Amino acid sequence: MAVDRWILENKHLDQATLVQRPETRVPMAQSWLPPPVGMLKLNIDATFSYGSSNSFAVVVRDFRGLIVHVETGLTGAVEDALHAEAVAAWRAISWARSMQLSSVILESDCQVLINDLSMKSDSLTSAGLLLDAIKSISVCFSSCSFSFVKRGGNKVADAMAKFQATSLAPFQCFTFSELPADVAVLVQSDVMVE
Q1: CA distance 179 to 1
Q2: Domain tally for the chain?
Q3: Please, is 175 exposed, middle or buried when counting C-beta atoms within 10 Å of its C-beta (0-12, 13-18, 19+)?
Q4: Per-residue pLDDT tens over the stretch 55-80
Q5: Contact indicator for 157, 44 with CB cutoff of 8 Å
Q6: Phi then psi dihedrals of residue 72, to 5 deg
Q7: Which helix (H) or strand (E) holds 45?
Q8: Sorting pLDDT into bands at 50, 70 and 90, what band is 139?
Q9: Domain containing 121 — which CATH number?
Q10: 106: containing domain
Q11: Taking CA atoms, which of 15, 138, 139, 167 is between 20 and 30 Å from 90?
Q12: pTM score > 0.85 for this model?
């Protein structure tokens, strides 16, 4: 089934490219990459540990890498790490919708989450209802895509989720100048890579 779908989606590629040169595949991003002009990128991450408070972070940036919005909070009761990541995705997509944005990229270092959000069928995971709600909201945008990035490309969201896990506040919003100093350095290093 998955192979059939892949073939249909990639039928424009010639057989020689697929068989003889697999190294021509585009490598996964190791560092944060800006969205195209006119779009915003919503990087998300969450912490999860059985028996402790779990947190999420949403970091929204523009094509220049500038911070547009950062929020962190507690996930509430979640069953597993995927469920915690889904809470972060829900917060991000809900914020984007409330701001009446038209074009967004939701990016996470959780491959299972991105795979699930990219599928048209209903989710059968622990966070299924929440993921299905995110998919429903995503069609309200002119453009909404879900993108996987390795942890190196999600450092700012990762650091903010960890920061929230040590915070006493249940929910926080930040401007760039209010970010913890170590996180501000990560944002600046992402922009300097360009």
Answers
A1: 45
A2: 1
A3: exposed
A4: 999 999 999 999 999 999 999 888 89
A5: yes
A6: -135, 155
A7: strand 40-46
A8: very high
A9: 3.30.420.10
A10: 40-193
A11: 167
A12: no
